[in-house]
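step 4 of 6: structure.
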Amino acid sequence: LAKTTQPISMDSYEGQEVNITCSHNNIATNDYITWYQQFPSQGPRFIIQGYKTKVTNEVASLFIPADRKSSTLSLPRVSLSDTAVYYCLVGVRLFSGGYNKLIFGAGTRLAVHP
Amino acid sequence: DVKVTQSSRYLVKRTGEKVFLECVQDMDHENMFWYRQDPGLGLRLIYFSYDVKMKEKGDIPEGYSVSREKKERFSLILESASTNQTSMYLCASSSGPGLAGEVGELFFGEGSRLTVL
């Protein structure tokens, strides 16, 4: 199973761009990379998913290099409300056409300061 | 609005009690999951189910069992609760993989905080 490695914590200030990098050296050919956000006392919430190159939505961008051994979540112009834990996941397909077993790591605790 | 509902937000049980944690989703999802979350350890997968009456062990199934009699409901059972099972329990559901193989988005419930005394 592909494991992920992220920084334990990061600090930033309002209005800055934040980049959180995740390492997944053993990613398999069919694996997608997904990021989740979790606020205290809530379940994680999907942010973005990608397979290669760059994906952008209204919340974030995801950059994936050609070798796919890492990925970077980019949050533009963060605000205090972006203070949360961010998880990088690599999906594992257990059999053709089947379900995906998603493994969460410890995540990155982002603190945004005024 | 999609919804995953966990029956209890807070529970306090005694060692040796049998504990049921219920989870219901209204999205007709095939896949359902139970995680536990502990400080510094992130979320760890206990069990998951990809169809009614089907279940698979996750990374930490010891001391737990599950039941999925209906598609929308996935129950986590602690046969004999122990203090080391004090934790936040999170249920999630997702649709099957997409046509391109993309992973279905996980939808989480609010969590059930269990304390075992």
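step 5 of 6: annotate
 - Chain B has a mean pLDDT of 90.
 - The longest strand of chain B covers residues 42-51.
step 6 of 6: archive
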